[in-house]
Write a structure and sequence with these properties.
The complex is a heterodimer of chains A (469) and B (461). Chain A has 469 residues and is mostly helical. Chain A has one domain. Chain A is built from 16 helices and 5 strands. Chain B has a two-stranded antiparallel ribbon. Chain B is 71% helix and 1% strand. Chain B starts with a helix and ends with a helix. The longest helix of chain B has 52 residues. In chain B, α1 crosses α8 and α13 crosses α14. The chains are: A mainly alpha (469), B mainly alpha (461). Chains A and B meet through α2, α4, α9, α10 and α12 of A and α2, α4, α5, α10 and α11 of B.
Chain lengths: 469, 461
C-alpha cells in the first residue's frame, strides 16, 4: 500500500496542473491565516481600547449616588474567540456591545453585519471557509478518477495480476488523497502556531487539536466516498458529477434547509412577545422606584422589625438601597426564567442541528469547527451569562453601598466617592472550559468518526464485489 | 455582380437561414430528449425548484410574521391610546400607583402618547430576505429615544442560522442557479471532445459555436422558465402583483441578467475548455471564486480597513457626555435651550424663576438628542465608508453586486434600514419640537389638545 501512496504522490508532483493549483492554493491558505490573524488582531485592539475607555470613564467618577451610578452603568464588549482567526463563526451576526445597568438585563446589540451592506453570505475570508468548502472540492478533483482511470487504462488488472490486492489499491488511493488534505491542514496548523507562538496556552492547543481532528475526519469521509464512487462507477466523469452532487447537497443545500427547519421545529418567541411576557412578570415583583408599592410595604416592615425600630428615619442604614436590591433580586428571577427559556430553545435547535450530522457530516464539521474555535452560539451565550453574572455583582455592590455606605433613607443627594467606584471590580472574561467544549461537541466528533467507520466498512464490504474492468 | 448573382445569393442566404433555424430547432429537440433521459439533470432541476419553492415559502412566512407583528403592535398602540384617553375622560392624571404622573402636563402627555414606527415589509420580500433579519423593524418612539436604541434590535433568532442565512429565493438564485447551470451544462461539448465526436458534429451542424450556443441556450431557457414559474408562484404568496410599488419587472430583469451572466461565463468555459472533467473543474472553480472567495476577501479587506465599530462614540454620547451635560449649571443649560429653541425665550416659564428649573430638567432631552445626533452622523459616515469600499469592488465582485441589487429591489437593503433610522430620528425631533415649547408655555393638556398631539406625532412620515 505504501508503494501505491508513493506512486500517487509522485503523480501529484508530476502533474503540472495539480502542482500549480496546489502551489497557488497553499499561498492563498497561508495568506488567509495571516490575514485572519491580522484582522483578529485589529479587532482585538479595538476591543481592548473600548474596554479600557469605558473602565477609565467608570474610574473617573469623582462622586455619584450609587443608584445614579447603577443607571449610568457601563458597557461590556464581546471578546473574540480563542481561534477566531481560523473560524469567525457567528461573530459577524451577533451583537458586540452589552449595556450593564440596574433594573434590567439588556440584550447584546450592534452586530457587525448591521454596520455594512451585504457583501458575503459566507462571512469573511477565514481558513475555515477554505477548509470547509474549497479543500473538499480539491480532494474530490484529486480522487474522482483514481480508480476509474486505472480501470479504463487496464492498469488495475495489471496491478492485480502483479499481486496487489484491490482493497490495498483502494485504501492506498484514499490515503494518498487524504494525506494531501492532511498536509494542507498541517500547513494551516503550523502557520497558526507560528503566528501565535507567544500566546499559546494548553487550552488553545487542545482546541486546535480537536479543530484539526474534525477536519481530518471529514476529509477522510470525502476522500473515501470519492474513491468509492470512482471504483463503483465505470466512468470517471460519472464519479465526479456524483461526488459534486453530494458536495452541493452537503455543503449548500442541506445545511440551509436543516438549520431553517430547526428554527421552525423549536420556534423562538417574537421580540415583542418576549418583552411583554418579561414586563408582565416583572410587574408582579417589587418596584424599586415606587415607594408606594404594596410589596415594598412588606419589605419595609420586615427591615424595621429586623432593626427593632419604628420608622425608616430611625434605621442606621439607607433602606432605599435594600429596596433597590430587592427589586434586582426579583428581576433576576424573571430574567432567568425568560432568557433561560430562549437558551433552552436554542439548545434544542442546536441539538437538532447536531443530530442532523447523521445525514450530513458537513454540519458536524461546521459545528465542531465553530465550537473549538470559540465562535459558536455556546460561547456566545457563555459570554452573555458571564456578563449577566457580572451585572448582578456590579449592581449589588452599588446597592450595598447605597444601603450600608453611610447614608440614610431618602438621602438621594448622598454620593459615594471615587475610591469606591475604583474598587468596583472590572469584568474579567473567562474562556469556556475545554472539558465543557469537548462534551458539547462530542456528538459532532462522534458522528464524524461514525461516518469514517461507515466509509471504511463500505470499502471493506464492497471491494470483493467490485468490477475490475 | 449582376442581378442573377444577387438572386442566387438571396436564395442561398434564405436557404442558410432556413437551415439555421431548422438546425436550431433540431438541436433544441435533441437537447430536450437528452435532458428528459438524464435523471441526474432532472433531479438537479427538481431539487432546484424544490429549494426555490421552499425559499419562497420562507420569504412569505417572514412577510406574514412581520405583518402580523405590526398588526399586534398597532393594536397595542390603540389600547394604550384608549387608556390615556380614559384618564382625560375620567378626570384621572395617570396610571394608578404613579401619583407623580400627570397627563395634563405636556411632558407626561407626550411621554404617554404611543408613537410606534414600523418598517413595513414589501411584499417582494418573498423573493429575497436580504438584510432584513439583521435589523429591527419597529420601534416605540419617545423624546428620549435614538435610532440606535437597544429596543431596535433585530428579532430573536438563532445566530448560527443567521450566520448561514435563511434559505430564501434570493439564496437559491444567487448561489444555486449557477450550480444548476453547472449541472445542466457540464458535459456539453466536453463529452463529444472526450469521445472524439467534435469533427462529425462540425460537419453535421456547420458550426461548433452555433451548435454549442444552441445547446447552452436550451438549458438557459429551461432555467429561466423555472425561475419565471417560481417567480409567479411567489407573487401569489404575498400579493406582489397587486402591489403598485413592487418592482416586478426590475426583479425579472435582474433574474434574466444574472442568468445571462453565468450562462456567458459557462459558455466561454465550454467553448475554450477541453474534456468534461476539465470543464467541470473550471466551472466549479469559477463558481467558488465568484461566490465564496472574492466576496469573502472583499469583506476581509473592508474589516481590516474599517473594523466593526464598538460604538464607543455613541456610548459616550449616551453616557459620559450626557452626564457632563446634566452636570452643567442651570444657566448654561437654559442658554443652550434658548439657542436651540429661540421661540421659548419669552415664554411664561422663562420668566418664572421658581419653575424654570423643572422646565429645564424636562427639556434637557432635546440637548441630549443633539449630542446623539452628532455621534450618529459620525457612525453613519463610518458605515458609508465601508459601503463605498464594497461598491468599489463590484467590477470584480459581481455576485455581491447582484445580491446588492436584489436587496435594493426588495427593500431589504442596508439603505432601506438607514432610511428607517432617519425616519425614526425625524419622529424623535418632531416630539422634541413639540415638547419643549409646550412645557415652556406652561400649557395644560386636555383631551382635545392631546388628540392634537397624537395626530401630529403619529402623522405619516
Amino acid at each position: 500500500m505504501w508503494q501505491i501512496i508513493v506512486n500517487e504522490w509522485q503523480y501529484y508532483f508530476r502533474s503540472r496542473l495539480l502542482f500549480s493549483i496546489s502551489a497557488g492554493f497553499i499561498i492563498v491558505l497561508v495568506l488567509t491565516v495571516i490575514l485572519g490573524q491580522y484582522q483578529s488582531g485589529i479587532q482585538k485592539d479595538k476591543y481592548v481600547n473600548a474596554t479600557d475607555h469605558l473602565r477609565g470613564q467608570w474610574e473617573k467618577i469623582e462622586a455619584m449616588n450609587p443608584h445614579s451610578a447603577a443607571h449610568y452603568g457601563t458597557y461590556l464588549f464581546k471578546p473574540g474567540g480563542l481561534l477566531n482567526s481560523l473560524d469567525d463563526g457567528i461573530n459577524t451576526v451577533t451583537g458586540n456591545v452589552l449595556r450593564v445597568e440596574g433594573h434590567v438585563q439588556n440584550e447584546i446589540v450592534y452586530s457587525e453585519a448591521s454596520q455594512i451592506k451585504s457583501v458575503s453570505r459566507f462571512g469573511r475570508l477565514r481558513s475555515s471557509l477554505l477548509l470547509q468548502y474549497i479543500v473538499p472540492l480539491l480532494l474530490i478533483f484529486l480522487a474522482f478518477a483514481s480508480i476509474s482511470n486505472e480501470k479504463e487504462s487496464g492498469r488495475l488488472r495489471l496491478l492485480l495480476v502483479q499481486g496487489a490486492k484491490l482493497s490495498q489499491i483502494i485504501f492506498g488511493k484514499i490515503l494518498s488523497a487524504w494525506l494531501y488534505g492532511l498536509s494542507l491542514l498541517l500547513l494551516v496548523f503550523a502557520a497558526y502556531l507560528l503566528l501565535n507562538i507567544d500566546s499559546l496556552t494548553s487550552a488553545t492547543l487542545i482546541r486546535s487539536f480537536f479543530f484539526f481532528v474534525a477536519y481530518a475526519l471529514y476529509y477522510f469521509v470525502i476522500c473515501g466516498l470519492t474513491v468509492y464512487l470512482s471504483a463503483r462507477w465505470q466512468n470517471a466523469t460519472l464519479a465526479l458529477t456524483s461526488m459534486l452532487a453530494i458536495w452541493i447537497l452537503w455543503t449548500i443545500f442541506l445545511p440551509a434547509i436543516l438549520i431553517s427547519y430547526s428554527e421552525a421545529a423549536y420556534p423562538l418567541p417574537s421580540r415583542d412577545q418576549f418583552k411583554t411576557a418579561m414586563k408582565e412578570d416583572r410587574a408582579k415583583g417589587i418596584d424599586g422606584h415606587n415607594p408606594l408599592d404594596a410589596r415594598n410595604k412588606e419589605l419595609q416592615e420586615k427591615v424595621l422589625a429586623e432593626y427593632g425600630v419604628d420608622s425608616l428615619s430611625q434605621l442606621p442604614i439607607n433602606y432605599d438601597g435594600l429596596r433597590m436590591q430587592a427589586d434586582e433580586d426579583y428581576g433576576n428571577i424573571v430574567w432567568d426564567k425568560h432568557f433561560g427559556n430562549i437558551r433552552e430553545i436554542l439548545t434544542q435547535q442546536k441539538r437538532m442541528i447536531q443530530l442532523a450530522g447523521i445525514f450530513n457530516p458537513f454540519l458536524s464539521l461546521r459545528n465542531a469547527s465553530m465550537g473549538f474555535a470559540g465562535s459558536d452560539n455556546l460561547h456566545h451565550h457563555d459570554f452573555l451569562l458571564q456578563a449577566e453574572n457580572y451585572r448582578r455583582v456590579f449592581i449589588k455592590t452599588l446597592n450595598d453601598e447605597h444601603a450600608y455606605g453611610g447614608s440614610k433613607t431618602g438621602d438621594w443627594g448622598w454620593k459615594a466617592d471615587n475610591a469606591f467606584f475604583k474598587s468596583v471590580p472590572a469584568y474579567q472574561h473567562k474562556p469556556r472550559d475545554i472539558g465543557a467544549i469537548v462534551q458539547s461537541y462530542a456528538l459532532d466528533l462522534g458522528l464524524l468518526l461514525l461516518w469514517t467507520v461507515v466509509i471504511f466498512a463500505l470499502m471493506l464490504t464492497s471491494t470483493p464485489r467490485m468490477k475490475i474492468i | 455582380m449582376d442581378s442573377g448573382d444577387l438572386c442566387f445569393n438571396a436564395h442561398i442566404n434564405s436557404e442558410n437561414e432556413n437551415n439555421m433555424s431548422a438546425n436550431f430547432i433540431s438541436v433544441f429537440v435533441y437537447e430536450w430528449k437528452h435532458f428528459i433521459r438524464t435523471p441526474f439533470k432532472i433531479i438537479a432541476l427538481l431539487l432546484f425548484v424544490i429549494a426555490g419553492v421552499y425559499g419562497l415559502h420562507n420569504g412569505a412566512a417572514l412577510y406574514n410574521e412581520k405583518v402580523s407583528e405590526i398588526e399586534k403592535l398597532q393594536e397595542k398602540a390603540a389600547n394604550e391610546e384608549e387608556e390615556i384617553s380614559g384618564y382625560f375622560s375620567k378626570g384621572e392624571t395617570g396610571p394608578a400607583g404613579r401619583p407623580w404622573v400627570n397627563v395634563t402636563n405636556p411632558y407626561w402627555a407626550i411621554w404617554y402618547t404611543p408613537v410606534y414606527h414600523f418598517k413595513s415589509p414589501d411584499p417582494s420580500i418573498v423573493y429575497n430576505i436580504g438584510q432584513s433579519e439583521q435589523y429591527g423593524f419597529y420601534k416605540k418612539v419617545t423624546f428620549w429615544s435614538s435610532p440606535f436604541d437597544a429596543d431596535l434590535a433585530e428579532e430573536i433568532a438563532n445566530p448560527e442560522r443567521l450566520q448561514f442565512g435563511r434559505l430564501d429565493f434570493g439564496f437559491v438564485v444567487i448561489y444555486l442557479l449557477p450550480l444548476l447551470l453547472l449541472v445542466l451544462l457540464y458535459n456539453i461539448k466536453g463529452d463529444e471532445e472526450d469521445n472524439g465526436y467534435l469533427p462529425i458534429i462540425e460537419i453535421q451542424s456547420g458550426s461548433i459555436n452555433s451548435w454549442l450556443l444552441t445547446r447552452v441556450a436550451f438549458y438557459a431557457s429551461v432555467a429561466f422558465i423555472s425561475l419565471l414559474l417560481m417567480f409567479l408562484y411567489g407573487g401569489f404568496l404575498t400579493g406582489v402583483f397587486a402591489s403598485e410599488t413592487s418592482p416586478v419587472f426590475g426583479i425579472v430583469l435582474l433574474l434574466l441578467f444574472y442568468l445571462l451572466f453565468w450562462t456567458v461565463i459557462y459558455f466561454l468555459i465550454l467553448k475554450y475548455g477541453g474534456g468534461t472533467a476539465k470543464n467541470t473543474l473550471m466551472m466549479a472553480g469559477v463558481w467558488l471564486l465568484l461566490t465564496f472567495i472574492v466576496p469573502a476577501s472583499v469583506y476581509q479587506f473592508v474589516s481590516i480597513k474599517n473594523p466593526a465599530s464598538l460604538m464607543t462614540d455613541l456610548i459616550d454620547a449616551k453616557g459620559d457626555n450626557r452626564e457632563q451635560l446634566f452636570d452643567q449649571p442651570d444657566d448654561t443649560l437654559r442658554s443652550m435651550l434658548f439657542k436651540r429653541f429661540p421661540e421659548i425665550v419669552d415664554s411664561p416659564l422663562a420668566k418664572d424663576s421658581t419653575r424654570i428649573k423643572r422646565a429645564i430638567n424636562r427639556s434637557v432631552s432635546s440637548l441630549a438628542n443633539e449630542l446623539l445626533k452628532e455621534s450618529i452622523v459620525r457612525l453613519e459616515n463610518e458605515n458609508r465608508e465601508k459601503n463605498t469600499m464594497v461598491s468599489l469592488s463590484y467590477w470584480f465582485n459581481p455576485v455581491s453586486f447582484f445580491q446588492d441589487r436584489f436587496n435594493a429591489l426588495t427593500a431589504t437593503h442596508y439603505q432601506d434600514f438607514l432610511a428607517f433610522r432617519d425616519q425614526l430620528q425625524t419622529l424623535i425631533d418632531k416630539q422634541i419640537g413639540l415638547l419643549v415649547p409646550e412645557i415652556w408655555n406652561d400649557v395644560t393638556v386636555d383631551e382635545n389638545r392631546w388628540s392634537g398631539y397624537r395626530s401630529r406625532l403619529q402623522g405619516e412620515m
